[in-house]
């Protein structure tokens, strides 16, 4: 809790950051704990909704899960570094690195983290929490985009036209 309030104070002191939804951090924390508890309980103890693991070979699940977890770590680390690693003298729309591929790489990393764990052990109960988390992340992303549109106007509208929200475009832009 102290870390969150310290981060929030630092964010409030930086005029190059636009802001986030008031319950964004708390909601993500609650959903992360709920997902972890559900996935661990179902995978290792109760095994109520893990029957699909019998039909999808670990030879497929484990490498796919590992790839998704590595990609998640890359998106989170790179995205956080770009946003919080340095103060920008002139506030503007961030278009470098992973932000030139998708508009919400940090939230996408959270979605891919959960999916990677689901690939390691398919739990339908945890998958239900994952779907709820996707809905929540989409909701707070839309809220933050309204803030960015209000602050940067046409510059952010252009960014929205050129860079997809969640799924990278294949091929030329």
General description of the model:
By secondary structure, the chain is mainly α. The chain is built from 6 helices and no strands. It has one domain. The chain is elongated.
Q: What descriptive keywords fit this protein?
A:
single chain, 173 residues, mainly alpha
Strand share of the residues? under 5%
Instruction: Output the number of helix runs.
Output: 6
User: What is the helix/strand order?
Assistant: HHHHHH
The stretches of 5 or more residues where confidence is low (pLDDT under 50) are none
Ordered list of secondary-structure elements with their pairings:
Blueprint (H helix, E strand, L loop, with lengths): L1 H12 L10 H23 L11 H27 L20 H16 L3 H29 L1 H9 L11
Could you write a compact summary of the structure shown?
The chain has about 170 residues and is mainly α. Helix content is about 65%, strand content about 0%.
């Amino acid at each position: 809790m102290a870390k969150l309030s310290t981060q929030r104070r630092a964010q409030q002191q930086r005029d190059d950051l636009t802001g986030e939804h008031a319950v964004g951090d708390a909601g993500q924390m609650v959903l992360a704990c709920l997902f972890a508890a559900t996935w661990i309980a179902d995978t290792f103890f109760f095994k109520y909704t893990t029957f699909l693991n019998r039909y999808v070979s670990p030879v497929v699940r484990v490498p796919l899960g590992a790839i998704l977890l590595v990609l998640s770590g890359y998106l989170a680390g790179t995205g956080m570094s770009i946003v919080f690693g340095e103060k920008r003298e002139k506030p503007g729309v961030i278009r470098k690195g992973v932000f030139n591929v998708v508009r919400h790489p940090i939230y996408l990393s959270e979605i891919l983290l959960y999916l990677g764990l689901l690939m390691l052990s398919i739990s339908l109960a945890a998958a239900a929490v994952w779907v709820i988390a996707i809905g929540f992340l989409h909701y707070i992303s839309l809220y933050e985009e309204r803030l960015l549109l209000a602050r940067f106007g046409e510059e952010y509208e252009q960014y929205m036209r050129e860079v997809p929200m969640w799924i990278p475009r294949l091929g030329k832009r």
